[in-house]
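Quick question, first post here. What does this chain look like in 3D?
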Amino acid sequence: MRFLFNIFITGIFVSIGFPQSHFNIKSGVGNVTSSVSDYYLEIEDGSFSASIQVDRMKSSVRDFQFDFAEQDYYTEIFQSMGKLVSLSANGIHIKFTERRGEGILVDIGKISVSLDNWRINADGNGPRETPSLNWDITIQNVQFTPTSEMTRNMGQDLWDVFNYFSNGTNTANLNKVTASMSISNNGKISGTGILSLPVGKLSANLDATMNRDPREEPFINQLELKISNLTSELTRFLDDLILNENIPIRKTGNGYSLLMTGSIGNPRFR
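> Answer (accepted):
Ran it through. Tokens below.
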């Protein structure tokens, strides 16, 4: 990913060195593949410290084009297109600690992210035209382990939730997260996602449409959430909510579902 880093540094240098000028940066690359092993980063800032360790990383770039232009002091335009940018990493260990002992350790088995067949034209106010892209991410085998000091300082309600999800082991697990989204030239948005936990599974399907002005909020034709494979305790909890509270979740044969249309600001449930 050194190629992308060089573009970023060049953009910063030119914008600082020539803040009033009209300038344009164009760059591109055919194919780049790189790999790194045993990467680490440590940060300390007074009472806070953080460390990141990665066993293995691999990245790929294919047919990448980049264009950054400053038309005047207030207008900056970014354009990019390409076939593939991907990153995968195995064995990620992240630790955050404060001086008083509160902190958390996050272990991630694998992460993979990819962006392909994209075309983006944007400025500081958002997209100038309808973008097109395909985006995917997968995260597997995640463990969250807070320090004993952090768990001692949790409120009772938060501790009860954490203790339930960690099954009394002081380590909460996330089995897998997958998400994908695509935007076509005609503004059609489709997406899927799955969150898998030891206590249940959540899946999502999205069908939406961008407005003629791509900077406006898209219209959600349908967003469907499905909840399944719940433990008996969570099943009783949701059954009680449906019975006694005005929530739009419906019970189905093998779990629960929620259907929504409209917009985030003005949703309609059915």
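The chain has a mean pLDDT of 88.
Residues 184-270 form one domain.
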